[in-house]
């Protein structure tokens, strides 16, 4: 049975941080009251001026050595990394730091995954690859804890006779990113949980309902439901909007960016983003209570975990204000 707790986790944007800085930031967040940290396995930054893209798995291990919180890595297995290798990576972390790691499976973005030179598929095929990758990883987990081999021959991946020879006592949980009702329902059937991007309450409610339908179909009583929330806080409203425009203008793009292949292309497209575009999509405010109320909305909807990404580079100040004026006031 999946153990569910109501938690708020701090997102470390590796695009904006050198490895040592990312470790220090995550450690500070956990010590200040965040329940854990979240990393994305990226090969390139979204923007050239972000100037970073360290290997998430190495950074996750370093964070685990210097903190006591949970650690989630979001990855898109099947392009740069076969699902079996992603499985090996997460169980190695879990063996080193038991009970603290989760694997978040994504369909991926071309900016990271096309770099190995393979064909970049359409959305439907990326979704099928995502769930087949999840199937392979679950097969490996299930067989390996019993000291058995497993195989897989599917539409997109093959796995010859294999097992994970290093296995932790507690198998890491697998959550699947869901962008619509179909993937939300499938995640309820096949994964330990779902993760979605924050959106309008009515849209998010549809995803939650679809996920619960999938849980019922699979006979599951519990599942971890996570929402990824972006916001911009600073000491003044003007600074908050400037931080978003300079450091994370992608939040204001009016179209999906999964097919964009170059940080330079993203930068060109982001030149058209305005302050109104940003404010229409994420909370932008110097008032901590604005952000507290936004996060509370998702707890009230039934999410178990919130991943919070303050999009500016003012992370030390954000961690301080969140630990003092936001996290203690949330009602679970």
From TrEMBL:
Domain of life, per UniProt, equals: Bacteria
Which UniProt keyword terms apply here?
Oxidoreductase
The Swiss-Prot or TrEMBL record annotates one GO molecular function as:
oxidoreductase activity, acting on paired donors, with incorporation or reduction of molecular oxygen
One Pfam family, short name: Bac_luciferase
Give the Luciferase-like domain ranges. 16-304
Give the matching NCBIfam families: F420_G6P_family (TIGR03557)
Which protein is depicted?
A: G6PDH family F420-dependent oxidoreductase
Origin organism is Microbacterium ginsengiterrae
